[in-house]
Amino acid sequence: MGKFYITTPIYYVNDRPHIGTAYTTVAADILARWHRLAGDEVFFLTGTDEHGAKIYKAAIEKGKTPKEFVDGVVPEFISAWKTMDISYDKFIRTTDTYHEDSVKKFVMKLWEKGDIYKGTYTGLYCVPDETFVSESDAKDGKCPSCGRQLETVSEEAYFFKLSKYKDRVIELIKNGLVLPDSKKNELLNRLSGDLKDLDITRKSVKWGIEFPPDPSHTIYVWFDALLNYVTALGWPDGEDFKKFWPADVHIVGKDIVWFHSVIWPAMLMAADIPPPKTVISHGWWTIEGRKMSKSLGNVIDPVKLSEKYSADAVRYFMAREKQIWDDGDFSEKSLESRINGELMADLSNLVARVLTIAEKSNVPESSEVELEGFIDFEEFSSFMGGADIFNALETILAGIRRVNKYFNDKKPWASSEEEKSKTLYNALEALRMISIVITPFMPSVGGKIANQLGLKQGKASDLKFSQFKGQPKRGPNLFEKL
Ligand code: MSP
Protein backbone atom coordinates (compact mmCIF):
# COMPACT_ATOMS: atom_id res chain seq x y z
CA MET A 1 0.00 0.00 0.00
CA GLY A 2 1.23 3.42 -0.82
CA LYS A 3 0.47 6.31 -3.09
CA PHE A 4 -0.28 6.04 -6.79
CA TYR A 5 -0.21 9.03 -9.09
CA ILE A 6 -1.46 8.37 -12.63
CA THR A 7 -2.06 10.81 -15.46
CA THR A 8 -3.52 10.89 -18.95
CA PRO A 9 -2.25 13.34 -21.56
CA ILE A 10 -4.23 16.55 -21.50
CA TYR A 11 -6.35 16.68 -24.63
CA TYR A 12 -6.37 19.31 -27.34
CA VAL A 13 -9.70 21.11 -27.34
CA ASN A 14 -9.83 21.62 -31.10
CA ASP A 15 -11.31 18.14 -31.20
CA ARG A 16 -14.14 16.47 -29.33
CA PRO A 17 -13.48 13.30 -27.35
CA HIS A 18 -13.08 10.34 -29.72
CA ILE A 19 -12.25 6.69 -29.42
CA GLY A 20 -8.49 7.47 -29.20
CA THR A 21 -8.64 9.94 -26.34
CA ALA A 22 -11.29 7.77 -24.70
CA TYR A 23 -8.96 4.78 -24.87
CA THR A 24 -6.09 6.55 -23.09
CA THR A 25 -8.53 7.74 -20.45
CA VAL A 26 -10.24 4.38 -19.92
CA ALA A 27 -6.89 2.59 -19.64
CA ALA A 28 -5.78 5.08 -16.96
CA ASP A 29 -9.11 4.73 -15.17
CA ILE A 30 -8.81 0.94 -15.05
CA LEU A 31 -5.41 1.24 -13.39
CA ALA A 32 -6.54 3.99 -11.01
CA ARG A 33 -9.55 1.96 -9.90
CA TRP A 34 -7.46 -1.14 -9.36
CA HIS A 35 -4.96 0.73 -7.20
CA ARG A 36 -7.81 2.12 -5.09
CA LEU A 37 -9.13 -1.42 -4.57
CA ALA A 38 -5.61 -2.49 -3.64
CA GLY A 39 -5.59 0.12 -0.89
CA ASP A 40 -3.32 2.71 -2.46
CA GLU A 41 -3.98 6.38 -2.06
CA VAL A 42 -4.65 7.35 -5.66
CA PHE A 43 -4.45 10.65 -7.50
CA PHE A 44 -5.76 10.37 -11.05
CA LEU A 45 -5.31 13.42 -13.23
CA THR A 46 -6.73 14.32 -16.60
CA GLY A 47 -7.55 17.59 -18.34
CA THR A 48 -7.28 19.76 -21.42
CA ASP A 49 -4.48 21.39 -23.41
CA GLU A 50 -5.84 24.75 -24.49
CA HIS A 51 -3.07 27.00 -25.83
CA GLY A 52 -1.19 27.32 -29.10
CA ALA A 53 -1.61 28.07 -32.78
CA LYS A 54 -3.81 25.09 -33.49
CA ILE A 55 -6.43 26.03 -30.90
CA TYR A 56 -6.23 29.67 -31.96
CA LYS A 57 -6.90 28.72 -35.56
CA ALA A 58 -9.85 26.54 -34.61
CA ALA A 59 -11.36 29.39 -32.56
CA ILE A 60 -11.03 31.89 -35.40
CA GLU A 61 -12.63 29.44 -37.81
CA LYS A 62 -15.60 29.24 -35.46
CA GLY A 63 -15.73 33.04 -35.18
CA LYS A 64 -14.96 32.97 -31.47
CA THR A 65 -12.26 34.32 -29.19
CA PRO A 66 -9.91 31.55 -28.09
CA LYS A 67 -11.20 31.72 -24.54
CA GLU A 68 -14.85 31.52 -25.60
CA PHE A 69 -13.94 28.64 -27.84
CA VAL A 70 -12.07 26.57 -25.23
CA ASP A 71 -14.73 27.26 -22.59
CA GLY A 72 -17.25 25.81 -25.00
CA VAL A 73 -15.38 22.57 -25.64
CA VAL A 74 -14.17 21.68 -22.14
CA PRO A 75 -17.66 20.71 -20.87
CA GLU A 76 -17.81 18.12 -23.66
CA PHE A 77 -14.77 16.38 -22.24
CA ILE A 78 -16.09 16.56 -18.70
CA SER A 79 -19.42 15.12 -19.68
CA ALA A 80 -17.89 12.44 -21.93
CA TRP A 81 -15.75 11.20 -19.04
CA LYS A 82 -18.78 11.20 -16.78
CA THR A 83 -20.72 9.06 -19.24
CA MET A 84 -17.79 6.68 -19.45
CA ASP A 85 -17.48 6.37 -15.67
CA ILE A 86 -14.04 7.93 -15.46
CA SER A 87 -13.07 8.39 -11.82
CA TYR A 88 -10.49 11.16 -12.13
CA ASP A 89 -9.57 13.10 -9.01
CA LYS A 90 -8.72 16.31 -10.77
CA PHE A 91 -9.36 17.90 -14.14
CA ILE A 92 -6.75 20.48 -15.10
CA ARG A 93 -7.11 23.15 -17.77
CA THR A 94 -3.98 24.90 -19.01
CA THR A 95 -5.92 28.17 -18.98
CA ASP A 96 -6.43 27.83 -15.20
CA THR A 97 -4.67 30.73 -13.49
CA TYR A 98 -2.83 28.56 -10.99
CA HIS A 99 -1.36 26.55 -13.87
CA GLU A 100 -0.24 29.64 -15.77
CA ASP A 101 1.39 31.13 -12.65
CA SER A 102 3.17 27.91 -11.87
CA VAL A 103 4.45 27.55 -15.45
CA LYS A 104 5.93 31.07 -15.27
CA LYS A 105 7.63 30.19 -11.99
CA PHE A 106 9.12 27.11 -13.60
CA VAL A 107 10.42 29.07 -16.55
CA MET A 108 12.02 31.62 -14.22
CA LYS A 109 13.73 28.85 -12.32
CA LEU A 110 15.38 27.54 -15.50
CA TRP A 111 16.10 31.08 -16.69
CA GLU A 112 17.93 31.97 -13.48
CA LYS A 113 19.84 28.74 -13.67
CA GLY A 114 21.04 29.62 -17.17
CA ASP A 115 19.31 26.73 -18.91
CA ILE A 116 17.43 29.03 -21.31
CA TYR A 117 19.08 31.22 -23.97
CA LYS A 118 18.05 33.34 -26.94
CA GLY A 119 18.55 32.20 -30.56
CA THR A 120 16.89 31.93 -33.95
CA TYR A 121 14.86 29.08 -35.15
CA THR A 122 14.17 28.26 -38.76
CA GLY A 123 12.35 25.14 -39.61
CA LEU A 124 9.44 23.29 -41.08
CA TYR A 125 6.45 23.60 -38.86
CA CYS A 126 3.29 21.53 -38.75
CA VAL A 127 0.56 23.80 -37.44
CA PRO A 128 -2.05 21.09 -36.70
CA ASP A 129 0.50 19.06 -34.72
CA GLU A 130 2.17 22.08 -33.06
CA THR A 131 5.55 20.73 -33.85
CA PHE A 132 8.64 21.48 -35.91
CA VAL A 133 9.59 18.66 -38.22
CA SER A 134 13.21 18.00 -39.18
CA GLU A 135 14.17 18.13 -42.89
CA SER A 136 14.94 14.44 -42.84
CA ASP A 137 11.58 13.53 -41.34
CA ALA A 138 9.54 15.68 -43.70
CA LYS A 139 7.98 13.82 -46.62
CA ASP A 140 7.75 16.07 -49.71
CA GLY A 141 7.17 19.07 -47.49
CA LYS A 142 4.44 17.22 -45.65
CA CYS A 143 4.17 16.24 -42.00
CA PRO A 144 5.28 12.60 -41.46
CA SER A 145 2.66 12.00 -38.79
CA CYS A 146 -0.43 13.67 -40.21
CA GLY A 147 0.47 14.13 -43.86
CA ARG A 148 -0.46 17.78 -44.00
CA GLN A 149 1.49 20.62 -45.61
CA LEU A 150 4.41 22.03 -43.58
CA GLU A 151 5.22 25.73 -43.38
CA THR A 152 8.74 27.19 -43.21
CA VAL A 153 8.99 29.32 -40.12
CA SER A 154 11.96 31.42 -39.06
CA GLU A 155 11.84 33.43 -35.90
CA GLU A 156 13.68 34.59 -32.84
CA ALA A 157 13.14 32.08 -30.08
CA TYR A 158 14.37 31.12 -26.64
CA PHE A 159 15.91 27.69 -26.29
CA PHE A 160 15.99 25.20 -23.46
CA LYS A 161 19.34 23.40 -23.09
CA LEU A 162 17.88 19.98 -23.75
CA SER A 163 21.22 18.62 -25.00
CA LYS A 164 22.78 19.21 -21.58
CA TYR A 165 20.54 16.46 -20.14
CA LYS A 166 20.98 13.93 -22.91
CA ASP A 167 23.20 11.49 -20.99
CA ARG A 168 20.99 11.52 -17.93
CA VAL A 169 17.89 10.98 -20.03
CA ILE A 170 19.51 8.03 -21.80
CA GLU A 171 20.42 6.57 -18.42
CA LEU A 172 16.85 6.98 -17.20
CA ILE A 173 15.40 5.27 -20.27
CA LYS A 174 17.94 2.45 -20.02
CA ASN A 175 16.84 1.98 -16.41
CA GLY A 176 13.28 1.25 -17.43
CA LEU A 177 11.37 4.54 -17.68
CA VAL A 178 9.45 3.42 -20.76
CA LEU A 179 7.21 0.43 -21.46
CA PRO A 180 7.12 -1.58 -23.72
CA ASP A 181 10.71 -2.50 -24.59
CA SER A 182 10.20 -1.93 -28.31
CA LYS A 183 9.44 1.71 -27.56
CA LYS A 184 12.43 1.97 -25.25
CA ASN A 185 14.73 0.71 -27.98
CA GLU A 186 13.24 3.07 -30.52
CA LEU A 187 13.93 6.01 -28.20
CA LEU A 188 17.49 4.91 -27.42
CA ASN A 189 18.11 4.56 -31.11
CA ARG A 190 16.89 8.07 -31.79
CA LEU A 191 18.94 9.38 -28.87
CA SER A 192 22.11 7.84 -30.25
CA GLY A 193 21.98 10.61 -32.85
CA ASP A 194 22.17 14.32 -32.29
CA LEU A 195 19.92 15.88 -29.66
CA LYS A 196 19.30 19.55 -30.35
CA ASP A 197 18.25 22.16 -27.84
CA LEU A 198 14.54 22.82 -27.80
CA ASP A 199 12.95 26.10 -28.82
CA ILE A 200 10.42 26.79 -26.11
CA THR A 201 8.95 30.16 -27.09
CA ARG A 202 7.01 31.55 -30.03
CA LYS A 203 6.90 35.15 -31.12
CA SER A 204 4.28 34.40 -33.75
CA VAL A 205 1.81 32.72 -31.44
CA LYS A 206 -0.29 35.05 -29.31
CA TRP A 207 -2.55 32.47 -27.65
CA GLY A 208 -0.21 31.15 -24.99
CA ILE A 209 1.32 31.83 -21.61
CA GLU A 210 3.57 34.88 -21.58
CA PHE A 211 7.29 34.12 -21.38
CA PRO A 212 8.29 36.16 -18.29
CA PRO A 213 11.88 37.10 -19.30
CA ASP A 214 10.59 38.53 -22.62
CA PRO A 215 6.83 39.21 -22.79
CA SER A 216 6.90 39.58 -26.59
CA HIS A 217 7.10 35.76 -26.64
CA THR A 218 4.67 33.08 -25.52
CA ILE A 219 5.69 29.72 -24.14
CA TYR A 220 5.61 26.80 -26.59
CA VAL A 221 2.43 24.82 -26.05
CA TRP A 222 4.19 21.51 -25.31
CA PHE A 223 6.42 23.09 -22.66
CA ASP A 224 3.32 24.59 -21.03
CA ALA A 225 1.31 21.37 -21.38
CA LEU A 226 3.85 18.93 -19.93
CA LEU A 227 4.06 21.02 -16.80
CA ASN A 228 0.41 20.24 -16.01
CA TYR A 229 1.58 17.06 -14.30
CA VAL A 230 3.25 19.07 -11.53
CA THR A 231 1.19 22.25 -11.52
CA ALA A 232 -1.96 20.16 -10.91
CA LEU A 233 -0.35 19.05 -7.65
CA GLY A 234 0.43 22.62 -6.67
CA TRP A 235 4.15 22.69 -7.51
CA PRO A 236 6.35 24.01 -5.92
CA ASP A 237 4.87 24.08 -2.42
CA GLY A 238 1.55 22.22 -2.65
CA GLU A 239 0.81 19.41 -0.20
CA ASP A 240 -0.30 17.15 -3.07
CA PHE A 241 3.00 17.72 -4.81
CA LYS A 242 4.92 16.62 -1.73
CA LYS A 243 2.66 13.62 -1.33
CA PHE A 244 2.17 12.35 -4.89
CA TRP A 245 5.16 13.36 -7.00
CA PRO A 246 6.90 11.60 -8.79
CA ALA A 247 4.17 10.28 -11.07
CA ASP A 248 3.93 6.51 -10.96
CA VAL A 249 2.45 6.26 -14.44
CA HIS A 250 2.08 8.64 -17.34
CA ILE A 251 -0.03 6.79 -19.85
CA VAL A 252 0.25 8.18 -23.37
CA GLY A 253 -0.28 7.20 -27.00
CA LYS A 254 2.75 6.03 -28.99
CA ASP A 255 2.89 9.34 -30.91
CA ILE A 256 3.75 11.44 -27.87
CA VAL A 257 6.19 9.20 -26.02
CA TRP A 258 9.19 11.31 -27.09
CA PHE A 259 7.77 14.37 -25.37
CA HIS A 260 7.09 12.40 -22.20
CA SER A 261 10.27 10.40 -21.92
CA VAL A 262 12.91 12.76 -23.28
CA ILE A 263 11.77 16.38 -23.09
CA TRP A 264 9.73 16.07 -19.91
CA PRO A 265 12.38 14.30 -17.79
CA ALA A 266 15.01 16.80 -19.00
CA MET A 267 12.79 19.71 -17.96
CA LEU A 268 12.38 18.15 -14.54
CA MET A 269 16.10 17.49 -14.19
CA ALA A 270 16.79 21.13 -14.97
CA ALA A 271 14.46 22.14 -12.14
CA ASP A 272 15.86 19.54 -9.74
CA ILE A 273 12.58 17.66 -9.63
CA PRO A 274 12.69 13.84 -9.73
CA PRO A 275 11.55 12.27 -13.03
CA PRO A 276 8.37 10.17 -13.38
CA LYS A 277 8.65 6.45 -12.65
CA THR A 278 7.03 5.04 -15.80
CA VAL A 279 5.79 6.17 -19.16
CA ILE A 280 3.39 3.67 -20.73
CA SER A 281 3.10 3.85 -24.50
CA HIS A 282 -0.13 2.50 -25.92
CA GLY A 283 -0.98 1.62 -29.52
CA TRP A 284 -3.57 3.20 -31.76
CA TRP A 285 -7.00 2.25 -33.02
CA THR A 286 -7.89 2.07 -36.65
CA ILE A 287 -11.54 2.00 -37.62
CA GLU A 288 -12.52 -1.02 -39.66
CA GLY A 289 -9.03 -1.16 -41.02
CA ARG A 290 -8.62 2.53 -41.81
CA LYS A 291 -6.99 5.43 -40.06
CA MET A 292 -9.54 7.41 -38.05
CA SER A 293 -9.89 10.93 -39.37
CA LYS A 294 -12.36 13.73 -39.75
CA SER A 295 -11.83 13.82 -43.50
CA LEU A 296 -12.71 10.14 -43.83
CA GLY A 297 -15.74 10.82 -41.67
CA ASN A 298 -15.14 7.67 -39.62
CA VAL A 299 -14.51 9.23 -36.22
CA ILE A 300 -16.16 7.18 -33.49
CA ASP A 301 -17.93 9.07 -30.74
CA PRO A 302 -17.38 7.19 -27.47
CA VAL A 303 -20.34 8.91 -25.83
CA LYS A 304 -22.85 7.77 -28.44
CA LEU A 305 -21.31 4.32 -28.30
CA SER A 306 -21.65 4.20 -24.51
CA GLU A 307 -25.22 5.38 -24.69
CA LYS A 308 -26.01 2.65 -27.17
CA TYR A 309 -24.15 -0.26 -25.57
CA SER A 310 -23.39 0.95 -21.98
CA ALA A 311 -20.13 2.42 -20.75
CA ASP A 312 -19.25 -0.94 -19.22
CA ALA A 313 -19.44 -2.73 -22.56
CA VAL A 314 -17.36 -0.08 -24.33
CA ARG A 315 -14.70 -0.05 -21.60
CA TYR A 316 -14.61 -3.84 -21.66
CA PHE A 317 -14.21 -3.91 -25.41
CA MET A 318 -11.35 -1.40 -25.33
CA ALA A 319 -9.40 -3.44 -22.82
CA ARG A 320 -10.26 -6.75 -24.45
CA GLU A 321 -9.90 -6.18 -28.18
CA LYS A 322 -6.18 -5.39 -28.35
CA GLN A 323 -2.99 -5.58 -26.35
CA ILE A 324 -2.36 -2.19 -24.77
CA TRP A 325 1.01 -1.84 -26.52
CA ASP A 326 -0.22 -2.77 -29.98
CA ASP A 327 -2.39 -1.13 -32.58
CA GLY A 328 -5.82 -2.62 -32.99
CA ASP A 329 -8.93 -2.30 -35.03
CA PHE A 330 -12.27 -1.04 -33.88
CA SER A 331 -15.49 -2.30 -35.35
CA GLU A 332 -18.99 -2.25 -33.99
CA LYS A 333 -19.51 -5.77 -35.25
CA SER A 334 -16.72 -7.04 -33.08
CA LEU A 335 -18.03 -5.06 -30.10
CA GLU A 336 -21.45 -6.65 -30.56
CA SER A 337 -20.06 -10.13 -30.85
CA ARG A 338 -18.10 -9.69 -27.62
CA ILE A 339 -21.23 -8.46 -25.86
CA ASN A 340 -23.27 -11.44 -27.10
CA GLY A 341 -20.50 -13.93 -26.45
CA GLU A 342 -18.30 -13.09 -23.53
CA LEU A 343 -20.50 -10.65 -21.64
CA MET A 344 -23.89 -12.20 -22.21
CA ALA A 345 -23.28 -15.90 -22.70
CA ASP A 346 -20.30 -16.31 -20.36
CA LEU A 347 -20.68 -13.74 -17.59
CA SER A 348 -24.30 -12.63 -17.45
CA ASN A 349 -25.68 -16.15 -17.83
CA LEU A 350 -23.36 -17.53 -15.19
CA VAL A 351 -24.50 -14.93 -12.67
CA ALA A 352 -28.14 -15.57 -13.52
CA ARG A 353 -27.87 -19.36 -13.32
CA VAL A 354 -26.00 -19.42 -10.03
CA LEU A 355 -28.32 -16.91 -8.42
CA THR A 356 -31.51 -18.55 -9.61
CA ILE A 357 -30.59 -21.68 -7.69
CA ALA A 358 -28.90 -19.89 -4.80
CA GLU A 359 -31.85 -17.70 -3.91
CA LYS A 360 -34.04 -20.79 -3.49
CA SER A 361 -31.49 -22.80 -1.52
CA ASN A 362 -29.66 -22.87 1.74
CA VAL A 363 -26.24 -21.48 1.08
CA PRO A 364 -23.65 -22.58 3.63
CA GLU A 365 -21.25 -19.98 4.98
CA SER A 366 -18.36 -22.29 4.43
CA SER A 367 -17.63 -25.53 2.69
CA GLU A 368 -14.86 -27.44 1.00
CA VAL A 369 -13.06 -25.20 -1.49
CA GLU A 370 -13.07 -26.69 -4.98
CA LEU A 371 -12.26 -23.65 -7.07
CA GLU A 372 -9.06 -22.56 -5.38
CA GLY A 373 -6.88 -20.74 -7.91
CA PHE A 374 -9.72 -20.33 -10.44
CA ILE A 375 -8.11 -16.96 -11.07
CA ASP A 376 -4.42 -16.53 -10.33
CA PHE A 377 -4.72 -13.29 -8.40
CA GLU A 378 -0.99 -12.84 -8.06
CA GLU A 379 -0.63 -13.02 -11.78
CA PHE A 380 -3.59 -10.69 -12.24
CA SER A 381 -2.12 -8.17 -9.86
CA SER A 382 1.27 -8.34 -11.49
CA PHE A 383 -0.27 -7.69 -14.92
CA MET A 384 -2.10 -4.69 -13.50
CA GLY A 385 1.13 -3.49 -11.87
CA GLY A 386 2.72 -3.46 -15.32
CA ALA A 387 -0.29 -1.69 -16.91
CA ASP A 388 -1.01 -4.84 -18.93
CA ILE A 389 -4.78 -4.49 -18.79
CA PHE A 390 -5.28 -6.86 -21.71
CA ASN A 391 -3.65 -9.87 -20.05
CA ALA A 392 -5.12 -8.98 -16.67
CA LEU A 393 -8.59 -9.13 -18.21
CA GLU A 394 -7.71 -12.40 -19.93
CA THR A 395 -6.99 -14.00 -16.52
CA ILE A 396 -10.47 -12.95 -15.33
CA LEU A 397 -12.09 -14.42 -18.44
CA ALA A 398 -10.24 -17.68 -17.98
CA GLY A 399 -11.60 -17.69 -14.41
CA ILE A 400 -15.16 -17.11 -15.60
CA ARG A 401 -14.83 -19.99 -18.05
CA ARG A 402 -13.59 -22.25 -15.26
CA VAL A 403 -16.52 -21.42 -13.01
CA ASN A 404 -18.92 -22.03 -15.89
CA LYS A 405 -17.42 -25.42 -16.53
CA TYR A 406 -17.43 -26.28 -12.83
CA PHE A 407 -21.10 -25.37 -12.50
CA ASN A 408 -22.06 -27.38 -15.58
CA ASP A 409 -20.08 -30.41 -14.45
CA LYS A 410 -21.49 -30.31 -10.92
CA LYS A 411 -25.13 -30.02 -12.04
CA PRO A 412 -26.38 -28.58 -8.73
CA TRP A 413 -29.96 -28.73 -10.06
CA ALA A 414 -29.74 -32.50 -10.09
CA SER A 415 -27.36 -33.29 -7.26
CA SER A 416 -27.78 -34.19 -3.59
CA GLU A 417 -28.43 -31.37 -1.08
CA GLU A 418 -24.93 -31.73 0.30
CA GLU A 419 -23.27 -31.59 -3.11
CA LYS A 420 -25.46 -28.68 -4.15
CA SER A 421 -24.49 -26.66 -1.06
CA LYS A 422 -20.85 -27.18 -1.78
CA THR A 423 -21.25 -26.19 -5.42
CA LEU A 424 -23.20 -23.07 -4.51
CA TYR A 425 -20.69 -22.02 -1.90
CA ASN A 426 -17.86 -22.30 -4.43
CA ALA A 427 -19.73 -20.60 -7.24
CA LEU A 428 -20.91 -17.72 -5.06
CA GLU A 429 -17.48 -17.14 -3.61
CA ALA A 430 -16.05 -17.14 -7.12
CA LEU A 431 -18.66 -14.63 -8.26
CA ARG A 432 -17.86 -12.46 -5.26
CA MET A 433 -14.19 -12.37 -6.29
CA ILE A 434 -15.06 -11.83 -9.95
CA SER A 435 -17.15 -8.83 -8.90
CA ILE A 436 -14.04 -7.32 -7.31
CA VAL A 437 -11.55 -7.79 -10.14
CA ILE A 438 -14.04 -6.90 -12.86
CA THR A 439 -14.86 -3.57 -11.24
CA PRO A 440 -11.91 -1.57 -12.61
CA PHE A 441 -12.96 -2.64 -16.13
CA MET A 442 -16.73 -2.47 -15.67
CA PRO A 443 -17.50 -0.45 -12.54
CA SER A 444 -21.22 -0.74 -12.80
CA VAL A 445 -21.26 -4.48 -13.57
CA GLY A 446 -18.95 -5.13 -10.59
CA GLY A 447 -21.38 -3.27 -8.34
CA LYS A 448 -24.40 -5.09 -9.75
CA ILE A 449 -22.90 -8.54 -9.14
CA ALA A 450 -22.02 -7.64 -5.54
CA ASN A 451 -25.51 -6.29 -5.12
CA GLN A 452 -27.17 -9.48 -6.36
CA LEU A 453 -24.97 -11.47 -3.98
CA GLY A 454 -26.26 -9.25 -1.19
CA LEU A 455 -22.78 -7.98 -0.43
CA LYS A 456 -20.93 -4.70 -0.27
CA GLN A 457 -18.22 -4.11 -2.88
CA GLY A 458 -15.05 -5.93 -1.83
CA LYS A 459 -11.40 -4.93 -1.98
CA ALA A 460 -8.25 -6.62 -3.23
CA SER A 461 -7.63 -7.99 0.26
CA ASP A 462 -10.92 -9.96 -0.04
CA LEU A 463 -9.63 -11.99 -2.99
CA LYS A 464 -9.59 -15.34 -1.18
CA PHE A 465 -12.11 -18.00 -0.27
CA SER A 466 -13.62 -17.34 3.12
CA GLN A 467 -17.04 -17.23 4.78
CA PHE A 468 -19.82 -16.40 2.38
CA LYS A 469 -22.02 -13.88 4.17
CA GLY A 470 -24.34 -12.70 1.42
CA GLN A 471 -28.07 -12.98 0.82
CA PRO A 472 -28.26 -13.82 -2.88
CA LYS A 473 -31.16 -12.39 -4.79
CA ARG A 474 -31.32 -12.59 -8.52
CA GLY A 475 -31.65 -9.24 -10.26
CA PRO A 476 -32.04 -8.19 -13.89
CA ASN A 477 -29.63 -9.78 -16.37
CA LEU A 478 -26.30 -7.94 -16.57
CA PHE A 479 -26.39 -8.05 -20.38
CA GLU A 480 -29.07 -8.93 -22.90
CA LYS A 481 -28.48 -10.50 -26.29
CA LEU A 482 -28.35 -7.82 -28.97
N1 MSP B 1 -2.26 17.76 -26.10
C1 MSP B 1 -1.39 16.69 -26.44
C2 MSP B 1 -0.91 15.98 -25.17
C3 MSP B 1 -0.23 16.84 -24.17
S1 MSP B 1 0.19 15.98 -22.76
C4 MSP B 1 1.15 16.97 -21.87
C5 MSP B 1 -2.10 15.70 -27.34
N2 MSP B 1 -3.43 15.70 -27.33
S2 MSP B 1 -4.40 14.85 -28.28
O1 MSP B 1 -5.73 15.27 -27.93
O2 MSP B 1 -4.01 15.00 -29.62
O3 MSP B 1 -4.23 13.32 -28.04
C6 MSP B 1 -4.13 12.71 -26.86
C7 MSP B 1 -4.09 11.21 -26.83
O4 MSP B 1 -5.01 10.56 -27.70
C8 MSP B 1 -2.72 10.68 -27.18
O5 MSP B 1 -2.32 9.79 -26.17
C9 MSP B 1 -2.94 9.99 -28.50
O6 MSP B 1 -2.04 8.96 -28.71
C10 MSP B 1 -4.35 9.49 -28.33
N3 MSP B 1 -4.96 9.14 -29.60
C11 MSP B 1 -5.37 9.98 -30.58
N4 MSP B 1 -5.86 9.23 -31.61
C12 MSP B 1 -5.76 7.92 -31.31
C13 MSP B 1 -6.18 6.71 -31.92
N5 MSP B 1 -6.73 6.66 -33.12
N6 MSP B 1 -6.02 5.57 -31.21
C14 MSP B 1 -5.53 5.56 -29.93
N7 MSP B 1 -5.13 6.67 -29.34
C15 MSP B 1 -5.09 7.83 -30.06
O7 MSP B 1 -1.44 14.92 -27.99
Short structural description:
With 482 residues, the chain is of the alpha/beta class. 46% of the residues lie in helices and 15% in strands. It has a domain at 332-462: Isoleucyl-tRNA Synthetase, Domain 1 (Orthogonal Bundle), CATH 1.10.730.
Describe the protein in words:
The protein has 482 residues and is an alpha/beta fold. The chain has a domain at 332-462: Isoleucyl-tRNA Synthetase, Domain 1. It has helices at 19-37, 53-61, 66-83, 97-113, 166-174, 181-191, 221-226, 228-231, 239-244, 257-270, 302-309, 311-321, 332-358, 377-385, 389-410, 417-438, 443-453; strands at residues 3-12, 41-49, 90-93, 116-126, 131-133, 151-160, 178-179, 198-199, 201-202, 218-219, 249-253, 279-282, 285-287, 290-291, 328-330. A 6-stranded parallel β-sheet has the order 3-2-1-11-12-7, with helices on both faces. It is elongated, with a radius of gyration of 25 Å. It binds 5'-O-[(L-methionyl)-sulphamoyl]adenosine. The site of 5'-O-[(L-methionyl)-sulphamoyl]adenosine (MSP) has 19 residues, from strand 1, helix 1, helix 7 and strand 11.
